[in-house]
Amino acid sequence: MTNHIAKGWNALTERVSSRLVNKLILLFSTIIILVVGSLTFISYKMLQREALKNSIASTSNNLLLVNKNLEDYLTGMEQLSLPQINYDELAFAISHAATNYASKMFVEDYLRNMYFSRSNEDLEAIYLYFVSSGTYYTISKENFDIKIRSGQADNIPSMSWYKQAMDSETNRAYQSFLLSNSERGYDMDPSRSFMAYHRVLRSISTRAPQAVVSFYYNTNTIDNIIKDIPQNKGQHLFFLSPDNVPFVLDEKPFYQSMVDSGLLKQLTADGSSKDGLTWDSPEESKYLVVYNVGEQEGWRLVKPIPYKELYTAAKTTRNLNFLIGLLFLLLAVILITYFSNAVTKPLKFLSQQMKRFSTGDFEASTEVVGRDELAYLSRQFNQMVSQTNELINERYKMKLVEKNAILKALEAEINPHFLYNALQAISTKALKAERFDIADMVDALALTLRYCISGKDIVRASEELLHIERYMSLQKARFGGRLQLITDWDEELKELELPKLSLQTLVENAIKHGVEMVSSTVTIRISARAAGGHAFIIVSDNGPGFAPGRLKEVLGSFEGDWNEQKEEERSVGLVNLNTRLKLLYGTSSQLVIRTSQSGTEMEMLIPRGGGPYV
Fold first, then answer.
1. Is 371 contained in some domain?
2. Which of 205, 392, 432, 562 is most buried, taking the most CB atoms under 10 A from its CB?
3. Cα separation of 176 and 248, whole Å?
4. DSSP H or E run through 6
5. Measured between alpha carbons, how far is 433 from 438 in angstroms, rounded to an integer?
6. 523 and 586 together in one domain
7. b/e map of 22-38 (b: 16 or more CB within 10 Å)?
8. What is the helix (H) or strand (E) element at residue 380, kind and residue range?
9. What distance in Å separates the CA atoms of residue 68 and residue 62, rounded to the nearest whole number?
10. Is 205 helix (H, G, I), strand (E, B) or coil?
11. Do both 206 and 88 map to the same domain?
């Protein structure tokens, strides 16, 4: 899968980079994307920062105003709890309410005055607990009627709010019913109240506690106060006491997660944080926590705001910018494509003509339009093509003459060498054996010489093989039984056309480096096979092979220029043959030599169809 992706990507990259117009489109599109993307990113970050600053400022101001109203509301609770009549008379009535009817009536009137002194209906009930007797009086609204009842509550001293009020320097305690309502103390329904305010009434002379007055408030007024704080989706609001006890909250689990994370401990007691606090909730949501601490007693309004809600406007603007940027990019790509094509179309045509010229089509030419650099380049190209045609026409005939002259010279250089060896063989045979078969050798020699001086450059394989038989009859006269020949030539290659004397050159080299170097029998094998569009002609022997370093010299002479090589540096036959092959067939032919201590193998590769020779 990865390889397919890599190949696809490489193909796409190659296709894009193969045309100038694609490069221009890619370049300008990249610049536009970078500019639009950068501007959008910068504006998005600026909008985020401004949204954060504005949200902190507006929320802080809003919490400040609402918290003042809440503290005023709490101050009203405290004022209500203070005796509004002669305190000595109230203290006396509290002490004698159980035994004195007038005192009892005084206490009931005191409760009624406090209950009806509230203009709003936020009071659920008022309880007056007598510390010495454990009894209490209560006033509340029951079935649209205000009633005063009394009862016994011996468990009040064990309540935590009672102990807190007794131990408080201000003789008061606030009680929340949000997290727990088990310590209600009185026979009442705490679900109807959001908080209770307890006040200790003490003797002026002894400071001993005489009674505790408790006010139970419903949510009517506080709901009206906190509704001035706007709450959007995902936002929360908490009203906490100075010791972070919740009195108003909208979601208990969320509050508990803030407590568990230790965030509430970071709320400063001296005022609001200018930049708010950042909190990562367990649900992996990031919140901005803005809060306000009351100036009078330190009550706290806390408002966690999710950052994603803060950045909604910024995200909307960012997405709009991206959309506008995309439309602008599409328009720009269309314009860039149009103008790039206008610029690169003449270049493309010029490139095509140059490609035709490079493949050998010397009739290529391009249109010259305008007077700019491209027009100058086109004009120079046309002049180059014209001059090249003139040079080709002049050089073509010279090259043909030179080629034929080189071929004739190479053939002429082989003939004296072969003639010398043949005459030496005849002389040797005559001196040693004085046999009449010398006449046969002379006939073979005559036919061989006749074959060599024939004017043909290319012959059929059957003619070359017949020549090799005559040539080998002369060589066997020289070497006798030490020279053996095996021919393995495919019938379908008998009509193959190959350079004249090419096989003789290979066989002659096998005799020179094989038979002449040893006294044992040497077998020369000539074979030919076809593969694809080429014929492989192999001449091998089991002689000692080339001398060390000699093969490297021969192969090195193949690479040099024939005219620049010195006579003594050349392996005449093989170099001649290699040069003839290159002249006749070009790069479609090859001469390969492999040698070792067990013999030498020379392979001639030529095209079956002929090749580029003229």
1. yes
2. 562
3. 9
4. helix 2-17
5. 10
6. yes
7. eebbeebbeebeeebee
8. helix 373-433
9. 10
10. coil
11. yes
For position 195, which CATH number holds? 3.30.450.20
Question: CA end-to-end span of the chain, whole Å?
Answer: 52
Tokens of 155: 């468990």
212 and 229 fall within a common domain: no
Number of neighbours of residue 603 by Cβ within 10 angstroms: 16
Per-residue model confidence as pLDDT tens digits over 383-392? 787 777 777 7
Residue 603 near residue 540 (C-beta atoms within 8 A) = no
Owning domain of residue 393 = 365-404
Q: What is the rounded CA–CA span in Å between residue 111 and residue 126? A: 7
**Mean pLDDT across the chain:** 79
Last residue within a domain, chosen from 269, 294, 309: 309
Specify if 613 maps to a domain. Answer: no
Name the DSSP letter for residue 132: T
Number of residues that make up the chain: 614
- Residue 464, CA atoms < 13 Å, CB-side half-sphere: 27
Q: Are residues 249 and 280 in the same domain?
A: yes
Together in a domain, 129 and 164: yes
pLDDT of 190-223, one tens digit each? 777 888 899 999 888 788 899 999 998 888 878 8
Whether the Cβ atoms of residue 584 and residue 458 lie closer than 8 Å to each other: yes
Alpha-carbon span 159 to 184, nearest angstrom: 8
- Give the containing element (helix H, strand E) for 37: helix 20-81
Range of lowest pLDDT (89-93, 214-218, 450-454, 481-485) = 450-454
Q: Which residues contact 403 (CB under 8 A, 6 or more apart)?
A: 583, 614
User: How distant, in Å, are the alpha carbons of 89, 280, 314, 449, 514 from that of 103?
Assistant: 9, 59, 69, 164, 150
570 or 53: which leads in pLDDT: 53
Structure confidence at residue 489 (pLDDT): 92
**Spatial CB neighbours of 266, under 8 Å, sequence gap ≥ 6:** 277
Distance, CA of 559 to CA of 458 (rounded, Å): 24
pTM beyond 0.90: no
**Which of these, 591, 549, 70, 53, lies nearest to 302 by C-alpha position?**
70
Angle between helices 312-358 and 20-81 (to 10 degrees): 170
At residue 11, what is the residue type? A
Enter the tokens of residue 104.
Answer: 């009892």
Asked if 468 and 504 touch (Cβ cutoff 8 Å), the reply is: yes
- Helix locations, 82-100, DSSP H: 87-96
Among 297-301, 407-411, 490-494, whose mean pLDDT is lowest? 407-411
Are 239 and 249 within 8 A, CB to CB?
A: yes
Sheet hosting strand 277-280, strand order edge to edge: 246-249, 238-240, 300-306, 286-293, 277-280
For the chain, the helix, strand and coil percentages under 3-state DSSP, each to the nearest 5: 55, 20, 25
Dist. CA 292–CA 59, nearest whole Å: 9
CB atoms within 10 A of CB 456: 9
> CA 576 to CA 89: how far, in whole Å?
145
3-class DSSP assignment, residue 92: helix
Strand partners, 460: 497
